[in-house]
Amino acid sequence: MEFLHWVGTHGFDLLEAVAIIASLCFTAVSFRHDTKARRIGNQFAITEAHRNIWSQLYTRPALARVLQPDVNLREEPVTDEEAVFITFILLHLSATYRAMQEGLFTTQQSIAGDLRWFFARPIPRTVWLASKSLLEPDFVEFVDRSLNS
């Protein structure tokens, strides 16, 4: 009998508290789902930017030397077109690094090996050494650490 009296007196408060807790739970689940969706969207955007940059190697013959491991830069220095292309890659890598640091996407891939492979080529290495002072210090440290590992 006392229980019914309590429910009669405080029932609306109880119902209100349950509704608030349920809405908070729903919001948390919705937020988690939206976060996952944004991370996947960010991954697609980064992949698209990556594809757009690298597809230039196939559409612009002037970039044919960029990935060659045996380029003699004393006889044929880095061209402006090659330097701009490498700069686009550096900016893309920097933005990707920043997005990773901010948790905007997740990846299980390690890019250290890719960085070592890429910067072992004479043209990318030369542009990197000339332009790294213009990039974010933590990104430069990350790349240098990857190259030395």
Describe it for me?
With 149 residues, the chain is an all-alpha fold. The chain has helices spanning 2-54, 56-59, 80-101, 112-119, 122-131, 137-148. Helix 1 packs antiparallel against helix 3 and helix 3 (80-101) packs across helix 5 (122-131). The longest helix is centred in the N-terminal third of the chain and has 53 residues, at 2-54. The model has no long low-confidence stretch (mean pLDDT 87).
Give the arrangement of secondary structure elements.
Blueprint: H1 2-54, H2 56-59, H3 80-101, H4 112-119, H5 122-131, H6 137-148
Chain-averaged pLDDT: 87
Distance between the termini: 75 Å
Strand content is under 5%
Helix percentage: over 70%
The rounded Rg comes to 26 Å
How many H/I helical runs?
A: 6
Order of helices and strands: HHHHHH
Regarding quaternary structure, what we see is single chain
Give a short account of the largest sheet.
none
Which structural category fits the helices and strands?
mainly alpha
Name the overall outline.
Answer: rod-shaped
